[in-house]
Amino acid sequence: MNTRQLGISMIELLVAMLISSFLILGVTQVYLDNRSNTIFQQNQAGNIENSRFTILILEQELAKAGYRRRADHTMEYAFPAENAGGRCGIMKAGQVTKFISATEFCIRYQPAFTGATECNGNLIANIPTKAYGFSADTGLGYARFALNNSGLTCNGTELTTNIDGLRFNFGVNNLEDERNITRFTTTPNADENIRAIQFSVLAASTTEVTKEPASTIYEYWFDAEPTNKKLYSLFSTSTSMRNQMP
User: Fold this and answer.
1) Which pTM value belongs to this model?
2) Per residue in 175-220, pLDDT tens?
3) Residue 197 phi/psi, 5° resolution?
4) Residue 237 or 241, more confident
5) How far apart are CA 245 and CA 180, in angstroms?
6) What are the structural domain ranges in the chain?
7) Mean pLDDT in the chain?
8) CA 4, chain centre distance (Å)
9) In the predicted structure, residue 245 carries a pLDDT above the cut 70
10) Distance (Å, rounded) from C-alpha 92 to C-alpha 96?
11) C-alpha to C-alpha distance for 221 and 233, rounded to whole angstroms
């Protein structure tokens, strides 16, 4: 007597499960790859944003270095010598940019208008109310840039984060040759005037996103292999101290 088979056989079930497993593995791999690419792009965008903001702050503040409310005043008169005053420490008359270390320098300037603030948001004191007013006690603005463990600081206030490296290369000359930059150096001499600054920013991702702890940029910067899987990005630019140009 013939009997009809109801349902599916064990072999058919196993074949169906095998095909389903392959499909699930494929979909899972596609999801993981897309997620990895998304995280990579997000961290890359974060590196670009942090670096551009760091560069923007440096360029905006450096544009103020040596600004005088009255152009007929000499640099030496507008910026007197300071033995221990301000935030830049010892500075000679007329000096508006000071090298401190490989990752730290300081500038000073006269504020252009009342209510002006320094890079950390603090108000500058003793600003004349007239547009071109000046007196012996006219307050000066200062900006002391440095790199801490996580980002760029100005006057002790952290402004940007996820910055692992910051390098400055100073274009300098002497008093006898004010119109030309005679050399670029990372350690200018005390008698040299800083006329331009080249700076490089090394940004690092907030999380580990690469498959292996390898980064050509990291090795170039630190001359060593990375110990983590973070994404590193390098950005460089330069700016001149336009208020010091003859």
Assistant:
1) 0.80
2) 666 667 888 999 998 888 888 999 899 999 988 888 888 889 999 9
3) -140, 125
4) 237
5) 10
6) 10-65+97-110+141-244
7) 85
8) 77
9) no
10) 9
11) 11
pLDDT band of 4, cuts 50, 70, 90: low
Q: Are 67 and 112 in contact (CB under 8 A)?
A: yes
Q: How many residues in total does the chain contain?
A: 246
The amino acid sitting at 77 is Y
Sheet holding 163-173, edge to edge: 183-185, 163-173, 193-208, 230-240
